């Protein structure tokens, strides 16, 4: 079965004609998205503070509540989240129908304090997900949550970092929201293992100058053009980089630039230079690690690694905080996800390789 790890939710509740926050008709205490106790991590637009919007996978919402139950309110068709209650095993909840704005996350809890952690795990550039709040037991409230980790990582990447097809087991299958899950990626696994909080800027098919199967001369929209946006493919709001300051930035791109008919070596190198320059401009003190993903082999791999090596060697002459790391190329021994993407086991292997490198690099 393709989505053998897909858990729709522990319990599921349907809102009555729920097309917005004010129309939610549910028993209990509604806590809006504006509540000061809610912690947000990731690129989130607060143009409408009552319904924060996001498009990148990995966005996190954390809170601590009192009482015996918890429901989550989101815009219909927002997509999938992974939820953890009191550090228990994460489970998946979905907002995938026109009226599924309220989903039950927990019931029959001990009447005390509880922690909820949510992670948006699909690519939301079409869905434009919105979080609208929680519903608690009547008369209960959110309280101060534990402080967020001081260790912070930003991952910039493509479909590998997004978690494309990670819950699938058939390499012939196409992309589906149901089998995409950032929670199981090398990036999320690495951050959890290091005790860090992370945010992502990632999109399937994107490159530093050329996207998948794009013209060798490059695409007008690529990671260099999207990196400054709060929402993917939306120029109306520039991301405020002061809202998240990582000590480490990992760039895992190049697979799409070198796909199909290949890349222009000059333009590819310039694409890396431009992106690294953007990162350094926004994060003057961060270490920058340029990663070579696991999906490339043969000439494509050699071509991409040569570009990364050349640019990092060139830039490190003046910037001593730029580093290189190569994942072991996948060979099928750990299976594949959809469309030949890394399987869940491959992501675990990638994390097991990256974690000690970053521990040594960061002293974590």
Layout of helices and strands, plus pairs?
Blueprint (H helix, E strand, L loop, with lengths): L28 E4 L6 E3 L11 E2 L5 E8 L2 E5 L4 E7 L5 E5 L6 E5 L5 E9 L8 E8 L5 E2 L8 E6 L1 H4 L23 H8 L3 E6 L20 H4 L21 E5 L12 H18 L4 E6 L5 H18 L6 E5 L17 H19 L2
Parallel strand pairs: 12-13, 12-14, 14-15, 15-16
Antiparallel strand pairs: 1-10, 2-4, 3-10, 4-9, 4-11, 5-8, 5-10, 6-7, 6-9
Helix pairs in contact: 2-6, 4-5
Mean pLDDT figure: 93
Total count of strands: 16
Number of helices: 6
Shape: globular
Report the C-alpha radius of gyration, rounded: 20 Å
The helix/strand class is alpha+beta
- Order of H and E elements: EEEEEEEEEEEEHHEHEHEHEH
Percent in strands: 15-25%
N-end to C-end Cα span: 39 Å
| Largest β sheet strand count, sense and barrel closure | 6 strands, antiparallel
Which quaternary structure do these chains form? single chain
Helix content: 10-25%
Q: Low-confidence stretches at least 5 residues in length (pLDDT < 50)?
A: 1-20
Q: Please, could you describe this protein's structure?
A:
With 364 residues, the protein is of the alpha+beta class. The protein is built from six helices and 16 strands. Strands 2, 4, 6, 7, 9 and 11 form a six-stranded antiparallel sheet that branches. Helix 4 (265-282) links the parallel strand 14 (248-252) and strand 15. Helix 2 packs across helix 6 and helix 4 (265-282) packs across helix 5.
The gist of it:
By secondary structure, the protein is of the alpha+beta class.
């Amino acid at each position: 079965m393709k989505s053998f790890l897909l858990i729709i939710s522990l319990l599921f509740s349907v809102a009555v004609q729920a097309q917005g926050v004010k129309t939610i008709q549910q028993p209990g205490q509604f806590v809006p998205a504006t509540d000061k106790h809610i912690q947000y991590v990731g690129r989130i637009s607060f143009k409408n503070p009552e319904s924060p919007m996001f498009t990148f996978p990995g966005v996190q919402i954390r809170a601590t509540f009192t009482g015996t139950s918890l429901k989550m309110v989101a815009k219909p068709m927002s997509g999938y989240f992974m939820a953890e209650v009191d550090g228990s095993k994460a489970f998946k909840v979905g907002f995938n129908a026109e009226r599924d704005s309220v989903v039950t996350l927990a019931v029959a809890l001990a009447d005390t304090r509880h922690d909820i952690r949510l992670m948006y795990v699909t690519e939301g550039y079409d869905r434009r997900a919105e979080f609208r709040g929680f519903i608690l037991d009547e008369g209960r409230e959110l309280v101060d949550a534990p402080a967020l980790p001081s260790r912070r990582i930003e991952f910039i990447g493509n479909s590998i970092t997004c978690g494309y097809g990670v819950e699938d087991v058939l390499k012939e299958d196409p992309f589906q929201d149901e089998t995409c899950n950032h929670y199981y990626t090398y990036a999320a696994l690495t951050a959890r293992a290091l005790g860090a909080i992370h945010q992502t800027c990632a999109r399937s098919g994107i490159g530093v100058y050329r996207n998948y199967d794009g013209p060798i001369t490059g695409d007008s929209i690529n990671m260099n053009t999207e990196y400054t946006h709060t929402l993917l493919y939306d120029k109306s709001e520039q991301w405020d980089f002061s809202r998240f300051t990582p000590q480490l930035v990992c760039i895992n791109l190049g697979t799409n630039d070198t796909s199909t008919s290949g890349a222009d070596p000059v333009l590819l190198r310039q694409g890396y230079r431009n992106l690294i320059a953007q990162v350094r401009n926004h994060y003057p003190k961060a270490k920058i690690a340029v990663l070579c993903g696991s999906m490339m082999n043969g000439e494509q791999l050699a071509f991409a690694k040569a570009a990364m090596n050349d640019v990092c060697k060139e830039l490190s002459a003046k910037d001593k905080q730029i580093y290189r790391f190569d994942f072991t190329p996948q060979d099928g021994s750990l299976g594949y996800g959809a469309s030949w993407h890394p399987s869940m086991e491959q992501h675990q292997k990638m994390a097991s390789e990256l974690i000690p490198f970053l521990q040594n690099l960061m002293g974590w």
